[in-house]
Design brief:
Length: 335
């Protein structure tokens, strides 16, 4: 979708067996993987962006109502905003990511008090390290602060279902995913993880078309994320992938151009959201992944700035023009 709101797209393939299943359409639902964080961020910052309530600087232990003692005294300096820009003190490369341990129920969101027993990997607000648990804890804090769940708020304030966005735990996408690159996991991998707990970080489903409209209708939240630049005082190298984050967005400099992206990955699929900060966005949803998924992200990201990005990325697939939905005059109050 360009800055003027014109929507373009390329689709290719079938939902399952070629020729014997439905063709992929612009509104076909895929697993969104970590692109779910885009939706969660919109809901989590809604009150802040609208100026209705200032809560992102609230100490997390206060937001969750967790009393001392704490195993790690640095927990007291953790703010809600640190959860949203991956600077809260969790490093999944040093400590096991509790959200995605195979066949093990995560402690978040069910026992947030366990946070008092956690040893952080670094002082909150000092560096960036991507962490899934942050968006789970932020959803718990949101519910305690506003007395309603993030998921109820996303529907009542944003009409989420109107964009064709839902939750994997309730209804999976119809797409057959490819596990040719995996020796361990197959299509049954989803039964080993708690998708209710993973709603906020990677547990949503939706179409590229629907997500593009959602982002378009919530541009102020994307701008808010970009303006979180500088939240963390430590220097970061934005020419290096996964080094710097502005809100949910990874900030990445390619040549002289800044791009902001959210990568998505689940076994058997890859996804990506990119914006230039000027209102132009690209959303890629795939039903397979490369041997080196990083090369896929790099190819799409570099193609985004090309003169004809759709044709360049999609190869021989012909672009199709997509129709915008009818004006949302009936969207629920507050949307």
């Amino acid at each position: 979708m360009d800055a003027e709101g014109r929507l373009h797209g390329c689709v290719n393939g079938w939902t399952d067996t070629p020729f014997f299943s439905d063709r992929i359409r612009p509104d076909t639902q895929f697993r969104l993987a970590s692109l779910s964080k885009i939706v969660s961020f919109v809901g989590l910052t809604y009150e802040e962006v609208r100026g209705k309530a200032s809560w992102l600087d609230t100490p997390l232990i206060d937001a969750l109502g967790i009393p001392p003692p704490f195993v790690d005294s640095r927990l007291g300096s953790m703010r809600v905003r640190h959860l949203l820009n991956h600077s809260a003190g969790f490093d999944r490369f040093r400590t096991v990511d509790a959200m995605v341990e195979r066949d093990k129920k995560p402690w978040c969101p069910y026992a947030s008090g366990k946070l008092a027993e956690i040893q952080l990997d670094f002082p909150p607000g000092t560096t960036y390290v991507y962490a899934n648990i942050g968006y789970c804890l932020a959803a718990v804090a949101f519910e305690k602060r506003f007395g309603t769940s993030l998921w109820t708020s996303l529907e009542s304030n944003h009409g989420l279902s109107r964009y064709g966005i839902g939750y994997l735990e309730e209804k999976d996408s119809p797409v057959h995913y490819s596990f040719l690159r995996h020796e361990f996991y197959g299509k049954d991998f989803i039964k080993y993880f708690d998708w209710h707990a993973l709603r906020g970080s990677m547990g949503m489903v939706g179409s590229a078309q629907g997500l593009a409209h959602f982002v378009r209708d919530h541009q102020e939240a994307v701008a808010y994320a970009i303006n979180m630049h500088g939240d963390v005082p430590a220097d970061c190298n934005d020419t290096k992938p996964a080094s710097c984050y502005d809100g949910f967005l990874e900030r990445h400099k390619i040549g002289k151009n800044l791009r902001w992206n959210q990568k998505g990955y689940l076994y058997g699929m890859s996804a990506m959201f990119i914006t230039d900060g000027a209102g132009n966005v690209l959303i890629w949803l795939g039903s397979g992944d490369a041997a080196d998924v990083g090369s896929t992200y790099d190819y799409i990201e570099r193609g985004f700035g090309a003169t004809a990005p759709v044709e360049r990325i999609a190869g021989r697939v012909q672009p199709i023009e997509l129709q915008s939905p009818e004006p949302r005059s009936s969207v629920l109050p507050g949307s």
